[in-house]
Design brief:
The protein is an alpha/beta fold and 375 residues long. The relative contact order is 0.13. 46% of the residues lie in helices and 15% in strands. It contains 16 helices and 13 strands. The strands form two sheets. It has a seven-stranded parallel sheet, with helices on both faces. It starts with a strand and ends with a helix. It folds into two domains: 185 residues, 3-Layer(aba) Sandwich (Rossmann fold); 166 residues, Rossmann fold. α3 packs across α4 and α7 packs across α12. The protein binds uridine-diphosphate-N-acetylglucosamine (UD1). The site of uridine-diphosphate-N-acetylglucosamine has 20 residues, from α1, α2, α5 and α10.
C-alpha cells in the first residue's frame, strides 16, 4: 500500500479550535492523508481549550507541547523548540497552520526551516496595523508559506499585491463558519445557565433583547486610561440593553490590576461571567440584539448570523465583514452612541460573503488531495 501523505495540523489558542475541527472531521480515516493534530498548549484552561475539544468533537491531540503563557518571545521560542522535535521525529509532508496566533507563526517558521511544506489557512488577511501582534504573525507566516488558503477575495488580492503567485492562492471559504453551521442546532439546544465571577447564578431573561460583549485585545485592555474609558462606556450601554460579558482572563487581570472591577461589578445591568464554552457562546451570540467586541472571529460569526456588530478597533483585517456583512468599526468613546443607533438599524442590507456556507473543509480536502497526487 502506498504511504499516506502525512499532514500535521497545528492548533494553539481558542480561535484555532473551531477552524481545526471541521478539517479533523473531514480527514478522519482518509485513504490518502494521515492527519496528526499538534496542540501547542498556548491556551490550556478548561474553558479556553478543553471544552472546545469536547463540544466540537475534536479528537485528543496526538501531541500537546504544553507551552502555557509567557511573553511573546518566550512563548514563540518555546513552541519553536518543542515543535522542531516533533517535526524531526514525525517527518511530515506538510504542516498546516491556521489563523494568526503566536502558535501559527512559530510552527510555520519551524517547518519552513526544515524544508517541510507549509499551508496557511486564513492567509492574506491584513489590518495594516503592526501594533497588533496578530498582524506580525500573519506577515511572518505568509512570507514563508507554500500554500495559501484564503477566506475572502480581498485576502487573495493582498497576497497577489505582495507578489505571491496566483497558482498558490486558493479562496475556499471560512472554516469558522463550517463549525458554526455544523453546531448551531446543538448550541441552540443547550440550557444557558451562566454563573457570575464569584460562582453566583446569573438571572437574566434571554428572551428579552440583550447585548453580548467581549474584549481582550492588548490595545484596549492593557492601558489603564483606555480601559477606564471603556468601563464608563460599557456601563452607559448597559442602561440601553442589559449586557452579558464573558471576561477573557487577560481582561479580568487588567480590570483587577487597575482597580476597575468594583465599578464594573456595581453596574446592575452588566452580567459578568468567565470565558464560555463554544455552545453557550454561540447560543448567546445567535440570540443577541447587538454584539460589541474587539475579537477577530466574532466579526465573521456575527456577519454570518446577520447580527449588528460594533468592533472597537481602529482597523480590521476582515474588511469583508464591513463591506458585505453586519460589522462596523468604532472608537472606544463612540460605543454608547453607536449602540443606540445599531439597535434601530435596518438589517436588510446585511449579506454573507462567498463560500461562507459550511463547505470550506470539503473544498480544502479536495485541494489537499490534488496537492498530494502531484507530490
Ligand atoms: C491570543 C491570541 C489572539 C486571540 C486570543 C483569543 C496571540 C498573539 N494572541 O491572545 O490573537 O484573539 O488568543 O483568546 O497569539 N490565559 C489563561 N488561560 C489560558 C490562556 C491564557 O488564563 O488558557 C491568560 C494568561 O494570563 C495569559 C493571558 O491570558 O498571559 C493572555 O493569553 P495569550 O495566549 O498570551 O494571549 P491572548 O490574549 O489570549
Amino acid at each position: 500500500m502506498a504511504k499516506k501523505f502525512k499532514l500535521i495540523l497545528v492548533a494553539g489558542a481558542r480561535p484555532n479550535f473551531m477552524k481545526i475541527a471541521p478539517l479533523m472531521h473531514a480527514l478522519e480515516n482518509h485513504p490518502a492523508i494521515e492527519a496528526m493534530l499538534v496542540h501547542t498548549g498556548q491556551h490550556y484552561d478548561e474553558k479556553m481549550s478543553h471544552s472546545f475539544f469536547e463540544q466540537l468533537n475534536i479528537p485528543e491531540p496526538h501531541i500537546n507541547l504544553e507551552v502555557g503563557s509567557a511573553s511573546h518571545a518566550v512563548q514563540t521560542a518555546t513552541i519553536m523548540e518543542r515543535f522542531e522535535v516533533v517535526c524531526m521525529n514525525e517527518q511530515p509532508d506538510m504542516v498546516m497552520v491556521v489563523g494568526d496566533v503566536n502558535s501559527t507563526a512559530a510552527c510555520s517558521l519551524v517547518a519552513a526551516k526544515l524544508h517541510i511544506q507549509v499551508a496557511h489557512y486564513e492567509a492574506g488577511l491584513r489590518s495594516r496595523d503592526r501594533d497588533m501582534p496578530e498582524e506580525i504573525n500573519r506577515l511572518v507566516t505568509d512570507a514563508i508559506s507554500d500554500l495559501f488558503i484564503t477566506t475572502s477575495k480581498d485576502a487573495s488580492q493582498n497576497l497577489l499585491d505582495e507578489g505571491v503567485s496566483e497558482a498558490k492562492i486558493h479562496m475556499l471559504g471560512n472554516l469558522m463558519i463550517d463549525s458554526l453551521v455544523e453546531q448551531l442546532e446543538k448550541a441552540q439546544a443547550v440550557e444557558l445557565k451562566l454563573t457570575g465571577l464569584s460562582g453566583e447564578s446569573i438571572q437574566i431573561d434571554f428572551n428579552k433583547p440583550y447585548t453580548l460583549m467581549t474584549f481582550h485585545r492588548p490595545s484596549n485592555v492593557d492601558d489603564e486610561k483606555t480601559l477606564s474609558l471603556l468601563v464608563d462606556e460599557w456601563i452607559k450601554v448597559s442602561e440601553l440593553l442589559p449586557v452579558v460579558f464573558p471576561i477573557h482572563p487577560r481582561t479580568q487581570a487588567m480590570l483587577e490590576k487597575f482597580g476597575l472591577m468594583e465599578r464594573l461589578q456595581a453596574a446592575p445591568d452588566i452580567y459578568l461571567t468567565g470565558p464560555l464554552a463554544y455552545f453557550e457562546f454561540l447560543k448567546l451570540m445567535a440570540g443577541a440584539s447587538l454584539v460589541i467586541t474587539d475579537s477577530g472571529g466574532i466579526q465573521e460569526e456575527t456577519t454570518y448570523l446577520k447580527i449588528p456588530c460594533l468592533t472597537v478597533r481602529p482597523t480590521t483585517e476582515r474588511p469583508v465583514t464591513i463591506w458585505e456583512g453586519s460589522n462596523q468599526l468604532i472608537k472606544a468613546n463612540e460605543i454608547y452612541t453607536q449602540a443606540e443607533a445599531s439597535v434601530r438599524l435596518d438589517r436588510s442590507g446585511f449579506g454573507v460573503p462567498q463560500y461562507w456556507d459550511g463547505q470550506a473543509a470539503s473544498r480544502i480536502i479536495k485541494l489537499l488531495e490534488q496537492f498530494t497526487a502531484l507530490n
